[in-house]
Every structure is written in structure tokens, then in C-alpha cells.
Amino acid sequence: MWKLQSNKALPFSVFYFILSVVLYIVALPLLILLSLKPKYKQSIPARFFLYKNKRFSSEDGIWFHVCSLGEARALKPIIDCLDGEDIKITTITHTGQAEAKKYDAEVRYLPYEMFLPFWAKKQRVVVVLEAEFWYMLFAVAASMGSRVILLNARISERSAQRYLQFAWFYEKLLSNVEMIYAQSEADKNRFLALGARNIEVVGNIKLAAEIKKTKDFDKPHEEVIVAGSTHLGEEQSILDSYVSYKETNDSKLIVVPRHPERFESVYLLMEAYAKEYNLSLSRFSEEKNFFADMILVDAMGELNNIYNISDVVILGGAFREDVGGHNPLEPAFFGCKIITGKHFFHQKELFKYVHHVQYVDADGIKEALDNAKELPPSIVEEKIDLDRVIDKLKK
């Protein structure tokens, strides 16, 4: 078992460990139930029961911890610069896991906190991305002698007040961190308010990501509108706007839900609109083309390829108050005209670098589609230098 380096931290860490055990026991029936759902059938057994989730095979490597798909993808330019290093990656979600397995690395799910003292192995550096603040991960890594670095670190304006209410806790957590590379000056100031030290602003590492297509689709003659990374409730607003827009515009709509487990329910919703408004509808997985008026993309990994043939992107995740938006860099890279919602708090830093975006409420999508005809394509005007970060990791 791990040994705390600081006797001062021992009482709280022991208390936190016991609390995590109690919470685990209380949540056990729910965890068993959730593990039966397709979305969690891999991640919950791995994280909460260590099923097929063995310890890393070696020590003294570089361990990256990310949450999901976006963060796992953002690692690519960094890992490309760490050729020859022993790379380990842990994730939270199954989509993050699938993306991480594309690298030459040992990939695991991050176990629930009470397992970490027994599961973790000492690594030279533990790099935690964005807002993955797990007390036991930080404390266990530091106690083993691993250097802990926060990369692409952020605290959203929405979350800052809540964090400050528990500043005493986050000060303990961040005391285990050697270096914080923050996304922005605002993020740096929020970390300082929580008692953190050694903070540098390097920008958002997603700006360094290589954005590319993997195949070429034929672009339809009609105007192509893609609803990308949509969430529950957003598709209905988009479909309402589209059927109204299509009355006077030769266009087609491609819908790409964020989560694959929603493919079927979104198709049924689109089917209802297709019947009511006499529109053709197809599934991309069956037809592999974009001939229909409306197309559901029920496949993973195609979004950039579709952005490449799109004129307008309605970027999901920001028309609801609880998601926080999605990465605008990819549609901007392909020169799409971007429409998104006003609740993009998790992507605020990235949207600073993307110009010519329309931010609207859900009931303003139709008007934004009309206005898009007069607006230039979105563009990205910023780059990031990762040399400081790479040098730090290689030390």
C-alpha cells in the first residue's frame, strides 16, 4: 500500500479513503444495475470491480489520465513528441478508452478511488488533463514519488463558485501537484484562488491537434447542414428549424449524435419528421451515402469527413444548460459556417480562437441558418507551442 510522504496529510487521506469505501458500499446496487447498460458495460466493471483492469506492467513511465474522447484525442501531438517513452493512459469513458487504444501505450480504465492505493504503480510523471480532480489519484501518485502535472487545466466560470466553497479541499488536493499548465489567465486566477502554485498559461493544447479527414465523400449539390455532436433535446429544435428552412432552400440535413447509444431514438425522431413533412431519410450505416433529405450518421469516427463536405454546422452540446458545448476547431478547420448555442462554458477558451460563429438559443436556429448565407466561413486564428510542456515531461 502507498505511504504518505507528509504526516500532516495522513489523517485527512485516511478519512477520505474510508469515506470512499462507505460511498462504494452504498452505491453498489446502482453500480451493478448500471453495469448492465451498454454504455457502461465495460467502464463500470473495469473501474468499480477491476474486471479486466490489471495494473500497469511497469514503473517509471509517463502516465496520462484523461476523461473521454476529446481529451484522449488531444494527447496525440504530445505523445508524438514522446517517441521512445513508456506511455500509460487511463480514461473514464468507453469512447475515451477506444481513442486511447490507438496510441502505442498501455491503456486502462482509472479505478474508483478506494482501489488506487493498491492498484497504482509509481511512474516518473503523472499528467492529468483538464478538470479530472481525483484526490486519491493525486495523493497516491505524489506519495509514491511521482511528479504530478496538470495539463490543459481549467476551471470554468460556472464551476468556480462551487470550487471556492470547498477551497480547503482543493488546496489539499492541489498541494500534491508540481506544475499546472492552465488554458487561460482566467483559469490561472481561479487556481490561485484555490491555493495552487507554480502555474503557467500555455493555452489550450487542443489547438495543437492535427485535424484531418480519413476519407473523401462526394459533396452533394445541395447545401449541406450537419448537426454535429448533438444531445437529447437538441435534435428536436434542429429538426423544427430545418423543416422550416427547407421550405425555401435546397438543402439536406446530416445528424451526428454525440453518443452512439442514442442512434436508435434519434432515428425514430427523424423518421417522424420525415413522414410528417414528406422528406426522405436514410441511415449512413446502411446506405453509405448522402442522397436523402435527412441522414442519420449512426457510425463513429466520421464527423471530420462529414465536416469536409458541409456548408453549415449546427454544433451541439451548447443548446442545453448542462453539457457545456463541444470543440469548434474541427468544423472551423474545414471552413464550415458554425451555429451553436450560448451554453458553451466548457469550450469557452477554444471559442475565443474561432471567428465568425453565431451563438443563438434553440429557437434562433432557423434565423441563424438564414443569416449564414451572408456570413464568411469560420476560421481559427491561433497556434500553441508545446515545447515547454514536452521538456518538462522529459525531465
UniProtKB/TrEMBL annotation:
Q: What is its EC number?
A: 2.4.99.12
Asked whether the keyword Cell membrane is assigned, the reply is: yes
What pathway annotation does it carry? Answer: Bacterial outer membrane biogenesis; LPS core biosynthesis
Query: According to UniProt, where does the site described as Transition state stabilizer lie?
Result: 130, 206
Q: Which GO terms describe its biological process?
A: lipid A biosynthetic process; lipopolysaccharide core region biosynthetic process
Membrane spanning stretches: 12-36
Q: Which UniProt keywords apply?
A: Cell membrane, Lipopolysaccharide biosynthesis, Membrane, Transferase, Transmembrane, Transmembrane helix
Q: Which residues form the 3-deoxy-D-manno-octulosonic-acid transferase N-terminal domain?
A: 43-208
Cell compartment(s), UniProt = Cell membrane
Q: Where is the active site?
A: 71
Entry keyword 4Fe-4S: no
Any one GO CC term of this protein is: plasma membrane
The enzyme class is transferase
| Family designation | Belongs to the glycosyltransferase group 1 family.
Functionally, this protein is described as follows: Involved in lipopolysaccharide (LPS) biosynthesis. Catalyzes the transfer of 3-deoxy-D-manno-octulosonate (Kdo) residue(s) from CMP-Kdo to lipid IV(A), the tetraacyldisaccharide-1,4'-bisphosphate precursor of lipid A.
From the Swiss-Prot or TrEMBL record, give the protein name.
Answer: 3-deoxy-D-manno-octulosonic acid transferase
Question: Taxonomic lineage of this organism?
Answer: Bacteria, Pseudomonadati, Campylobacterota, Epsilonproteobacteria, Campylobacterales
